[in-house]
Amino acid sequence: MFSNLSLVALTTLITTPLLLVVVAVLLVLERKFPYRKGLPFFRDGLWVDLVWYTLFQSFLLKILIFDVIIFALDRWVGPVRWQLLAGWPVAAQVGFFVVTHDFYIYWFHRFQHSSAFFWRTHEAHHSGKHVDWLAGSRSHAVEIIINQTIEFAPIILLGANPVVVPIKAFIDAVWGMYIHANIDVKSGRLQYVINGPEMHLWHHADHEEVFYANFSTKFAVWDWLFGTAYRPANRKPERWGLPYAFPKDYFGQHVFSVARYDETALVQRSRWFRAYHGVRGRLLGWLTGKAPALRPLHGWPVPEVGSGTVAAQRPGGNFGEM
Ligand SMILES: [Zn+2]
Ligand SMILES: [Zn+2]
User: Fold this and answer.
1) Cα 204 to middle of ligand 2, angstroms
2) pTM of whole model > 0.85?
3) Tens digit of each residue's pLDDT (9 = 90 or more) over 116-138
4) By the 8 A CB rule, do 273 and 171 touch?
């Protein structure tokens, strides 16, 4: 067990710097071949995605999912622990979990788009109007708890090599960043199998025709097989994100999934919320006052191109029924 654990630590030591290299490559490709021109690095919502979703939330949820939920499940299964995959080579184990979990996530994602209740655990992911390499990190805590428990518990419970966990997490991170990256990828026939920004960026568009399309994450083949693929030739989205107002604050976004409220009105009404909500703006104001070169940190609005299509009613819209 000890050697397995140290192997997990060693794998993480390799995958972490590798992940940073992938980030650097994606950033260069986003600048060189942008899908949507003019999208800045310091775009609207970068702070929320980076600090709150990527660092704060994933750190806390990793502890909850692995050290509480999966730990308890593992102890409960205990002596009858299934060793179904124990004899398989690591590569086969990784391949097995990548494909089976991706199949599951296609159906759960599709279900989230059609259930008014579960839409509330997914709308945050669609709330960003500036979609780029980091935008995929914006996922409601409940969505992450459900999906990652279903993803990682079988790896432990089916007796797979523990090293599969960091390898799978690395593949998830790379693929997740790639499909959201603001890169004008034209992968031809490969897009029938491997999913990329070409189809997933459309999934983030505020266009009626994609509200129930392009649910695939890693393998686009699910969309083609189950009739939900949308891949227009020579056309790009004109509007992005949700067709209704959505809070910009991390905690506000989670509250909004339970009780609908107007964040702008709350800022005007509540002195306390105004003070809390303005912390980042005041901090940046002070910082850029001292060093004007840091002004891009504020981010800036990217105009939407036009209003070609009519937004459809989404399940559980702004004040819709649960
Ligand atoms: Zn979606
Ligand atoms: Zn997405």
Assistant:
1) 6
2) yes
3) 999 999 999 999 999 999 999 99
4) no
Q: Which ligand is nearest to the Cα of residue 199, counting in written order?
A: 2
Ligand with smallest separation from the Cα of 201? 2
How close is the Cα of 245 to the center of ligand 2, in Å? Answer: 19
**pLDDT per residue over 43-88, tens digit each?**
989 999 999 999 999 999 999 999 999 999 988 887 666 788 888 9
Output the CA 322–ligand 1 centroid distance in Å. Answer: 18
Rounded percentage of the chain residues whose pLDDT exceeds 70: 90
* CA of 200 relative to ligand 1 center, distance in Å: 9
- Residue 128 Cα to ligand 1 midpoint, Å, equals 12
